[in-house]
Design goal:
163 residues, mainly alpha, 3 domains, two-stranded antiparallel ribbon, 2 strands
């Protein structure tokens, strides 16, 4: 038996044993507490209160076993809950990041784009230089995103632009 089969067998066992131990601990704890609180009405001593002292630790052990057995399922659930939130956040901040990137490249609204061939100032939305006609931006064939004419890779999908 290889490691993976052994691991899966242990997980299957824990998925059965964990809930059983949890239920047994819960039943013992309930019996112990019922005995304790019913003794108040009758004025006698609780006879099964010891069950609560045994049941509570068994209950916790059962919960831990069950959590260990379902760790992958729990982590997958958390991943599936978190990924859309991260993606939404990325979409929300994308314009701000693009604005900062444009500022770093020296493309402000007042200045516009600088031609990589002749150095001429062009409008911010210009696609070709008004002086020499060179392309000021590239369109990625993989995703359609526009990139700076000097870019070697698309900043959206990482596609390599040929020289």
């Amino acid at each position: 038996m290889d490691k993976k089969e052994k691991h899966e067998r242990i997980k299957r066992t824990l998925k059965i044993v964990g809930p059983i131990v949890t239920a047994a601990g819960l039943i013992l704890a309930v019996v112990g507490f019922v005995s304790f609180f019913s003794a108040f009405g009758s004025g006698g001593m609780p006879s099964l209160f010891w069950c609560a002292f045994i049941g509570l630790p068994i209950f916790v052990i059962g919960l831990r076993l069950t959590m260990a057995a379902f760790r992958r399922e729990i982590a997958t659930y958390h991943k599936n809950e978190a990924a859309p939130v991260v993606n939404e956040f990325a979409e929300d901040i994308k314009p701000a990041v693009q604005s900062v990137a444009s500022a770093v490249r020296g493309e402000t609204a007042a200045e516009g784009r600088i031609c990589p061939q002749c150095g001429e100032q062009n409008g911010a939305d210009a696609k070709f230089c008004q002086n020499c006609g060179s392309a000021l931006q590239k369109v990625c064939p993989a995703c359609g995103n526009s990139a700076d004419a000097k870019a070697k890779f698309c900043d959206n999908c990482g596609h390599h632009f040929p020289e």
